[in-house]
Write a sequence for this structure.
């Protein structure tokens, strides 16, 4: 429930303050933190929608996965954030300036037109998800979620440094 409230607040704040996020009004470190929060929000909504689509054998547990209305709300939140995605990447907030704090590649700003095109593709996929969620049809929602996955993955592969894989420490033989 906290994630739903936070997503609503972010969506309303984005509408109220416009689409541009200026570095001069907030420190670049704050911009990076907001950007990371937005990405986590979008991932959280996506995961919740996937769980809803998967369902559960136990009816009691299945009822906790949400309703078509919840999916519609999450899709709308994702759409609102996706439409403003590029505004969360102002110049001066890249990995060079914040190495270790952000996984954004310098290619974002070097290929700004390509990044904006990728962001528009995500916004289009999010619009399709919103339309599918409004129908309440799980098959349509599932197909739209595949579009979201392709859009996210395409952008992440090109513009995001991969996560470092965690290594397992081997136990010493006693």
């Amino acid at each position: 429930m906290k994630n739903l409230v936070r997503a609503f607040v972010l969506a309303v704040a984005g509408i109220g303050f416009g689409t541009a996020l200026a570095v001069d009004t907030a420190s670049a470190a704050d911009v990076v933190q907001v950007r990371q929060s937005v990405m986590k929000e979008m991932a959280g909504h996506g995961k919740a929608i996937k769980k809803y689509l998967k369902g559960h054998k136990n009816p009691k547990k299945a009822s906790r996965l949400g309703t078509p209305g919840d999916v519609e709300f999450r899709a709308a939140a994702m759409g609102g954030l996706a439409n403003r995605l590029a505004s969360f990447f102002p110049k001066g907030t890249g990995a060079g300036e914040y190495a270790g704090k952000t996984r954004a590649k310098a290619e974002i700003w070097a290929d700004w037109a390509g990044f904006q095109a990728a962001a528009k593709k995500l916004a289009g996929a999010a619009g399709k998800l919103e339309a599918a969620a409004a129908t309440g049809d799980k098959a349509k929602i599932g197909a739209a979620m595949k579009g979201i996955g392709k859009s996210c993955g395409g952008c992440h592969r090109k513009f995001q440094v991969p996560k470092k894989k965690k290594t397992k420490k081997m136990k010493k033989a006693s």
